């Protein structure tokens, strides 16, 4: 368990919540992106929403993209849609299906397919974009873990384990990892956002679980920690290769992420205030491509639509006092049997 967390300001939380609905205009736009010929990006959740827009923009800049999805059929459909819309690209899109991030048994085989698709080429960009935000707090993964944490935290970390040997090579000047978080991390638990006694709520009666927003907030706090912890755990290679690993809150975006909450009173109220998915892509691609981020930016928290803010104060402290590493190592122990 991490040391006792410092307090955090509800005023800052309110300020950041308001910023999410009225963020700064996007300044780093597709016209500013570099040519990505011969670059390779791996993007999870590419068949819909922000992920679809991210792949579309990368491909429009001649990037080779490997899209990782649960449903091969939906991934191929998204690929066809992009190819029909963008005719001039010199890049490519390959779809790797059957990667269910909540089911740890599927990730190694998906990683083997990614390795095949990479075929020895440099990987320049990894974007852990896929995730869930269900209305229900009662989901359980096949391994018995709380479903939101399993999908948003454990699955991406296990996938990154398999991508590391492909990514951590001196083969390209661009090396970025984006861990997609959310402003909802402010709703995580009081101690660094994490329920340290049992983050996966194993053995806890479903009726005794906290709200789905608290669970989602926990997973998004964990993503912020993962960005910094990955860089620290791979510090020598990261320094030599000038890798950059950051977290990213894409914005308050209309996507299928809210599909389980579509008919809720909250979503009916918020929907007119949400931005289109292309705006979320602008944020993620600022994190992936902007020269403003350097190897001194490890663990930075990118917010819409391409700015750097501070996360909740206790989580900010956790990035400096080793709490991020405690969370990373705890997850590593939970997933090591699937290496």
Automatic annotation (TrEMBL):
Swiss-Prot/TrEMBL keywords: NADP, Oxidoreductase
Q: Name one GO molecular function term.
A: oxidoreductase activity
Question: Which SUPFAM superfamilies does the record match to this protein?
Answer: NAD(P)-binding Rossmann-fold domains
Name the domain of life.
Eukaryota
Kindly give the InterPro entries that the UniProt entry links to this protein: NAD(P)-bd_dom_sf (IPR036291), SDR_fam (IPR002347)
Regions that span the bilayer: none
Q: Does the keyword Chloroplast apply?
A: no
Q: Which organism is it from?
A: Lachancea mirantina
Protein name in the entry:
LAMI_0B08526g1_1
- Gene3D superfamilies, per the entry: NAD(P)-binding Rossmann-like Domain
């Amino acid at each position: 368990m991490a040391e006792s967390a410092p307090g955090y300001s509800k005023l800052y939380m309110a300020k950041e919540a308001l910023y999410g609905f009225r963020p700064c205009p996007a300044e780093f736009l597709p016209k500013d992106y570099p040519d990505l010929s011969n670059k390779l990006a791996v993007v999870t959740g590419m068949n819909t929403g922000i992920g679809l827009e991210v792949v579309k923009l990368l491909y429009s800049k001649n990037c080779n993209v490997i899209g990782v999805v649960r449903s091969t059929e939906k991934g191929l459909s998204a690929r066809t849609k992009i190819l029909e819309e963008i005719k001039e690209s010199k890049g490519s899109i390959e779809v790797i299906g059957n990667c269910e991030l909540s089911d740890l048994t599927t990730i190694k085989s998906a990683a083997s397919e990614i390795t095949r698709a990479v075929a020895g080429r440099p990987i320049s960009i990894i974007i852990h974009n896929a995730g869930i935000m269900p209305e229900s707090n009662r989901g359980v993964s096949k391994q018995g873990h709380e479903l939101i944490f399993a999908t948003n935290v454990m699955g991406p970390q296990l996938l990154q384990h398999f991508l590391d040997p492909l990514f951590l090579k001196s083969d390209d000047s661009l090396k970025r990892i984006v861990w997609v978080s959310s402003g909802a991390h402010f709703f995580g638990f009081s101690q660094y956002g994490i329920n340290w006694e049992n983050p996966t709520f194993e053995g806890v009666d479903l009726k005794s679980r906290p709200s789905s927003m608290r669970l989602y907030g926990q997973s998004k706090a964990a993503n912020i920690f993962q960005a910094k912890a990955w860089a620290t755990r791979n510090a020598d290679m990261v320094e030599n290769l000038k890798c950059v690993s950051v977290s990213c809150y894409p914005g308050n975006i209309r996507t299928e992420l809210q599909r389980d909450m579509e008919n809720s009173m909250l979503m009916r109220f918020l929907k007119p205030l949400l931005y289109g998915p292309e705006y979320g892509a602008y944020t993620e691609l600022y994190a992936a491509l902007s020269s403003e981020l350097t190897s001194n930016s490890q663990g930075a928290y990118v917010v819409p639509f391409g700015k750097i803010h501070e996360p909740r104060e206790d989580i900010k402290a956790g990035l400096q006092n080793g709490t991020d590493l405690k969370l990373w190592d705890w997850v590593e122990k939970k997933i090591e049997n699937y290496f």
